[in-house]
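Whether sequence alone determines local backbone shape is best considered at the level of individual chains. For completeness, the protein is quoted in full, as a sequence line and a line of structure tokens:
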Amino acid sequence: MRPLLLLGLAGILAVIASVSIGSSSMGLAEALAVLLGGGSELQQTLILDLRLPRTLSAFAVGGLLAVAGALMQILLRNPLADPYVLGLSGGAAVGALVAMLSGLAGWLVSGSAFAGAMFATLLVFGLAHGRGSWTSSRLLLTGVVVAAGWGALITLMLAMAPARQLPGMLYWLMGDLSHAGNPWPALVILLLASLLVVPLGRTLNVLARGPLQAAALGVSVRPLEWLIYLLASLLTATAVTQAGSIGFVGLVVPHMLRLVLGNDQRLILPACALAGGALLVLADTLARVIIAPEQLPVGVITALLGVPTFLYLLYRSR
């Protein structure tokens, strides 16, 4: 319980720091005053209307990706699995880029991205199932091949796109929170998913040891695997719809927490929601201020932060 409290505190501090830091900085006391209902009208507009929605979107997306990554690693029993390994981000990217090339409004771009991610989910599941039941290795191979196909379509659309539309398309592909919409649906989905997976933690611990051992201990393996796949797909689709393709969070955060906290899914999964959210909030804050007033894609920052941290922890672990 103590690690979750510490991670929760870290998340709160990351949110407060994010809304305090920017091109027009203010002290932590002033930011807290605004969050508690005080402050001037200008400060309220700056924090409540501009910075806080983006910060909450970053927290939700980070938590969604980290939990989805942890679930994918359990489902595929592969330490290299991440939320995008089955081609969901590619399907979402194709849907979003088609909407951008068609000149559709921003909310339609998000809707197209979500539809593309769900289509990719059904496509991979249908192809992996084939004429019999699917296995984790078959699902993984199918996802990798489908992801390669999506990558080819994305390259084709970028090559054919008008020059004026390329910057927005590239920023979406690299992960961009500057145009993130209403954060509350993503936060609600993150909360509901966390509440759902915690009671399944003991069963997931058994499943992580292998399907044969889980079945021998009375676990309904196939329905549980379907639930994990659908839940991870929904979390990933929601995150990609909100902020584009942000890499490394879903791969690095679950591994970091396992190196520090062990491999109990009852602790790892809620910890992923908190740690992933805090990490992406800090990364987005850096993306906003490093070359202000210009902004960097947040996916670049997550890679620069996550990779050396993960390698250091891996080096120090036994």
Observations:
- Residues 41-76 form the longest helix (36 residues).
- The chain is about 75% helix and 0% strand.
